[in-house]
Amino acid sequence: MSGGALYDDSSYDDASYDDASYDDASDGLLSLATRAAGLAGGPVTIEDDASELITYSPGQENSDDARIATILSRRVPDRYRTLLRTEHLDERLAGSSGPFYADLRGAGILPRAIMPIRAGDTAIGSIWAIVPSSPSPEQRAALEESAALLAPLLARQAERRLAADARRTAAVRALLRGGDEAVETARELPLGPGPLAVVAVRPLPSALAPGPGPYDGRCHGAYDNPYANPYDDSYAGLCAGPGGPPGDPLRRALADLDRRLSAFQPGGLSAEIDGVGYAVVPVGDEQRLLRAVGELPEVAAGVGRTVPGPGRLGRSRADAELVVRLLTRLGATRERTAHIRDVQLDALLMRTVDLAVEAGHDPLGALAELEEYDRRRGTSLLDSVDRYLAAGEDARLAARQLHVHPNTLRYRLRRAQEITGLDLSDPAAAFDIRLRLRLRALRLP
């Protein structure tokens, strides 16, 4: 979805285009975009089914903010994707086989003629042309013709992308296992010998990673070539991220990480495996790596230990997975990104909790009875104990934080001690309670 001034097609010569000359390289897609713009009478973008930018025609200089943002980020920004849903344009795209007109001037966006691109019954993309009014029969026919020319090219791109995805995923799986298999796999890849680390990424429930940097008609990044891009120029036109077009939050996050890392440490490989994104990255500057990972928005990301070579990547992978599990379980309330060394104690406690639950034990011990009492009575004795200990056993401070009178807090503490039999004045008992309260936060919901 994008915009701009009316397209000047005075230089367009239909006879100069030979349909048979088009291929799915970036130049071929650009030629088709230019042709579609000339026929439709306005500048166009061509997008995939996940609103990722494939290519765009020249003549975008006076485009509106929506198109400029789409071209710069190589995808339709979230705020405009929300508009698509509000205006029901996504539904019309899904249900249409021909072009339709959308007057979006009320939202500060120039009108669009929108044409779905289909391969059989499957929507694989769309053309967005800026037009001053509802398209004429000639313009509609031109858009339909352009979509028909684009459909086999995009379908061929998708097939190649899937093949590259399968190879990349198999390579990443082998690397993550470590050992001799990882060493042998690394020899076949543009992967540095070491040191290396594994980054694991899982999107938070509300995650929608932002788009990458300016689009220049090709794909770039540490993980696009040569292994992930075996078709060279013929593969570049779609600008696919790891595993294909990064239309979902996880793939967009991986693509974003790829671009950030390629700026200073090229030579890694990433893939989505079983709902988790993994990146195997060379570590030249660990602090820069952590900053790059930390800049990923709305994801839980874990960085494993740095290892000397691919044979030990299994350990780094286990670290990264453990960190992501921890951050996800905590709801990323404290932080969204962490290195294993920074959360090692909590990670150890989480594993302790899981082992206790697996063995049929409640890690809360005597506090479990207090938790059940609160649940049945609608009280907050356990939270009061937690706040009291966190305040350094200062009843007045804890009461202020709880917005209750100090005597009310003292009554709650007495009731808690009566129910559990624990003596809050005993340092050993207080430590036991603090530890079990931390275990409580690390339980599975």
UniProtKB/TrEMBL annotation:
Q: Where is the CdaR GGDEF-like domain?
A: 195-325
Q: Give the transmembrane region(s).
A: none
Q: What InterPro entries does this protein's entry cite?
A: CdaR-like_regulators, CdaR_GGDEF, PucR_C-HTH_dom, PucR_C-HTH_sf
Domain (PucR C-terminal helix-turn-helix) spans: 381-438
Name the Pfam families on file. Answer: GGDEF_2, HTH_30
Q: Which family does it belong to?
A: Belongs to the CdaR family.
Q: What is this protein called?
A: PucR C-terminal helix-turn-helix domain-containing protein
